[in-house]
């Protein structure tokens, strides 16, 4: 109950304060490349219910035709997209999803169905028992995930075999020890990571 109250208050006032900044980012994206301001993609939410996530668009319109994963210096990323991704500003529109109750400020990152299907059943059920979040320990520790994947010829398989198990361990750790104090700590560590980058 307290977690949801924090989510609602933080997302509402966050969107209110950031509205002028969002407008500037929207203009930059539109001037930089053709297409919508937001990137909407189906993700798996709490209890396996799908939803469309909000992110600032950082890639060309036809980007997903070449695969879902972003690897290294991906040529599909726009000029504005490089900055938005590096600073994690592209994730801020997810405050809309938090306000609407589909996400939380902190929680396991929402995956696409393709990769959720790779989870062991018991892990999947546990991870999906909570709302997915904008940030979590995996987001902080694996902030350069695309550079890691760039080292492998088959980035999709590397994600499934190497990255996903690590993320799952972080997700399970969060579900087992979730608390308001832990959420506040992870929010602080996320901001610290972004600023130091």
Q: How many β-strands, per DSSP?
A: 4
Give helix % range. Answer: 40-55%
Q: Record the strand order, biggest sheet.
A: 1-2
Q: What is the number of domains?
A: 1
- Would you tell me the overall average pLDDT? 91
Shape: globular
User: Main β-sheet, in a few words?
Assistant: 2 strands, antiparallel
Write the layout of secondary structure elements.
Layout: H1 2-32, E1 38-44, E2 50-56, H2 79-87, H3 94-99, E3 104-106, H4 113-116, H5 121-127, E4 133-135, H6 137-141, H7 145-149, H8 155-177, H9 180-196
Parallel strand pairs: 3-4
Antiparallel strand pairs: 1-2
Short description:
With 197 residues, the chain is mainly alpha-helical. It is built from nine helices and four strands.
Characterise the protein shown here:
The protein is mainly alpha-helical. It has one domain (2-196). Helices cover 54% and strands 10% of the residues. It has nine helices and four strands. The protein has helices spanning 2-32, 79-87, 94-99, 113-116, 121-127, 137-141, 145-149, 155-177, 180-196, and strands at 38-44, 50-56, 104-106, 133-135. The strands form two sheets. It has a two-stranded antiparallel ribbon. A two-stranded parallel ribbon has the order 3-4.
Features:
mainly alpha; single chain; globular; two-stranded parallel ribbon; transmembrane helix; Bact_transf; membrane; two-stranded antiparallel sheet; 9 helices; Sugar transferase; 10% strand; 197 residues; transmembrane
